[in-house]
Amino acid sequence: MIGVTLLLVVLALILTVGYALVNSFHDVPNASAIPVRHRALTPRAALILAAVLNAVGVAAAAIMLPLAELELILVESIDPEPALAVIICALLTTIGWDLLTWWWGMPSSSSAAFAGASLGATIALGWVGLSSNLPKAFETFAHLIVPVLLAPAIAFVIAWLLVIPSVRGLRHVEADQVRLLARVGMVVGSTGTNVGHGLFHGQRVVLLLITIPAVGGLTAAPMSSAIPWAALVTALAFAAGSLMGAWRIAQTVSTRMVGTDALRGGVAQGVSGVLLFVGGVTSGVSLSTSQTTAAAVFGAGTNQKYRSTNHRLVGKVLLCWLVTPVVCAVTSGTLVLAASPFLG
Predict the structure, then answer these.
(1) Distance (Å, rounded) from C-alpha 246 to C-alpha 156?
(2) Predicted local distance difference test score (pLDDT) of residue 198
(3) Cα–Cα distance between 11 and 87 in angstroms, integer?
(4) 117, 261, 118: which is closest to 183 by C-alpha?
């Protein structure tokens, strides 16, 4: 069984790097869509900025990692193969869902996808008698999913409210100066969004890279000495994924969902950037960069005299947010059940 375990470890590590690439590719519009739309950044500059700042966020995550209390492995299995199967199935499901929602142009949450996939795989493993301690799995799922639900609501409300003093405070300022100030706000907000993404998702990927060999019995435990190489691999993967740029999702966020002028775009990007950066530095739970940013854009865009909301598309986006953890849980659980005869 050592050969099987080693194979599963290698597959899990490859999928972890693949997840980092796809995740950063999928989420880069959160920081680039609005600044590019309003010419605060060129597309090339936005992607380079995202690559660099995501790497910075990963480095910060690696420094903070020894202080974090995150439960990554959601099961306590009687054998390493089932535990590795949970990770592999969760990663396969999350990667697949990210690619599918990119094709649809939907700004969905990778955090919700990974949490749902992990929970579904854990429950499926319990059904076939290969794991226990399901309450721990539910607790970890709640630890991840609550911010995914709350952050969009908070971002929407704050962005909607901030438009009011912003419009009133700048009503006597010339339009060119307003656009300039808004573009500065977009760049600052984009910076916070990129760093926050690197913090949130980089921490998860680094944890996976140092935990998978330990689960497979190749190391005694996830050692702090492994963090530097894991962070380096993660930073390179995030930077490479960011440079690819998921422009399908960028079009949804910047123009198709709701129309924003430069001022409202600056408010939206600033709100999401502050929430994600502050959350990444102060919180031990993962916020959704996609849902936080999209909700902020929607909040700022709806607070204007002339309505330009595509209600049908917004409904599809909200539906996608709701079904993401459910679909991923069912898919990942099904994969585990299919593989269970080989795990006992």
Answers:
(1) 23
(2) 94
(3) 10
(4) 261
343 touches 79 (CB < 8 A): yes
- Rounded CA-CA distance 13/208 in Å is 8
Residue 220 is encoded by which pair of tokens? 């005694």
- CA 251/CA 241 separation, integer angstroms: 18
Q: Do 234 and 205 form a contact (C-beta atoms < 8 A)?
A: yes
What is the percentage of the chain residues whose pLDDT exceeds 90? 63
> In the chain, how many domains are there?
1
Q: How far, in Å, are 85, 122, 132, 156 from residue 79 at the CA level?
A: 10, 14, 12, 45
**Residue 251: closest CA among 20, 69, 33:** 33
DSSP of 243-262: HH--HHHHHIIIIISB---H
Instruction: Summarize the chain as % helix, strand, coil (round to 5).
Output: 80, 0, 15
The CA distance from 172 to 254, in Å, is 27
Domain interval for residue 259:
2-342
Interval 6-62: pLDDT, tens: 999 999 999 999 999 999 999 999 999 999 999 999 999 999 999 999 999 999 988
